[in-house]
Amino acid sequence: MFTSVLANEMSAYVELRKHAVSENVSELDRKNLLLLDRFMTLNNYSEKILSEDFISSWILTLTGKSKTRSEKISTVRGFVKYLHSIGMHSFMPDRIKVKSDYIPYIYNDEELAAIFKCADNLKELCKGKHNPYLELIIPMILRILYGCGTRLGETMELKRKDVDFKRGTLYLRVTKFSKERVIPMHESLIVILERYCLALGIMNDPEAFLFPGKESGTHYSTRNIDSWFAKILEACNIDQHKKQLGERGACLHCFRHVFVLKSMDQLEKSGHPVDMNDLLLPTYLGHECMIDTDKYMRFSGVQSSETLDSFERFTNGLIPEVEVNYEEE
After folding, report:
1. Partners of 182 in the β-ladder
2. Which fold has domain 100-311?
3. Which of 57, 65, 75, 110 lies most in the core, judged by the most C-beta atoms within 10 Å?
4. For residues 280 and 242, is the Cβ–Cβ distance under 8 A?
5. Of 76, 12, 11, 86, nearest to 50 (Cα)?
């Protein structure tokens, strides 16, 4: 695996991470460290510590978007912390600022209504062999994504035991960055989800996946969900490909952005101050801070003119007017 002078330390660190984070995260750490390992081998680096000059030269070789480079540097920062813990004091590289011009596609109310109508009548799109519960699975998944703002991957990992009907909560166990969390659901979603579990016959089976796959003990794949959603968007005449620079076409992940947008709007309308939003939404979404949540508030004014109007009313009187007096020469 690793071939550099720090091969043993890298292997030990990756093994340690396997027990601390999800499989996807530990695998990403391994791949990022391989880049550093190969750079050390190619440059015949023989020191048992990482110097500032060497790490700086490695960082200059990184390509891709700022987010991708930041993830690689973050992995090395974690490895350096590990080296420090075993008495090998290496240079700690600084984090880099992540820049993003990404703008999500925001479904309007008419599009949302069309999507759910099409999903509820999925048999019209079904051709050939498919999961016998597909006509129940797709509508339920979309309602959870819309009503809870969850990521698709963590939604597919849900099991019957993760649903608490008495408290009205979902327990998200398998999440990005291993941030397990319990989130509340609207009572209307609880009712639908209860009927769904009864229809699938999994109400009394705690280990059953909410969205079972064809094989026993598996869940429906995210790839298949994406494929079916693409058919739904096409049936609703929602273009998935037409987009401006930096924009993301219509997709399932955009439900998460819609959730944030509508949640912020509801919180403001119910009288919650902005500092309450800072606390509630990042925690609900599994973000570390409001900066991460802020990325979900980037949208086109054309798609969300009403929200922009609300924001202008909210900031009215907040920003002082600057008076400029021009003297006649």
Report:
1. 171
2. hpI Integrase; Chain A (1.10.443)
3. 75
4. no
5. 76
Domain ranges of the chain: 7-85, 100-311
Residue 28's closest CA among 57, 60, 61, 67?
Answer: 67
pLDDT tens, position by position, for the chain (329 residues)?
Answer: 899 999 999 999 999 999 888 888 889 999 999 999 999 999 999 999 999 999 999 999 998 888 889 999 999 999 999 999 999 999 999 988 876 666 778 899 999 999 999 999 988 787 766 667 889 999 999 999 999 989 899 999 999 999 999 999 999 987 776 778 888 999 999 999 999 999 999 999 999 999 998 888 899 999 999 999 999 999 999 987 655 554 567 889 889 888 888 877 776 677 765 554 455 666 666 655 555 555 555 554 444 445 445 444 444 444 344 444 434 44
Residue type, 259: F
d(CA 145, CA 185): 11
Query: Tokens representing 232?
Result: 């739904």
Q: How far is Cα 113 from Cα 219, in angstroms, rounded to an integer?
A: 27
pTM to 2 decimal places = 0.61
What does the block give as tokens for 11? 């292997």
User: Which residue is associated with the tokens 């960082």?
Assistant: 59
Nearest-angstrom CA–CA distance, 3 and 7: 5
Of 3.30.70, 1.20.58, 1.10.150, 3.40.50, the CATH number of 7-85 is 1.10.150
Left if phi > 0, otherwise alpha if psi is -120 to 50, otherwise beta: which for 49? beta
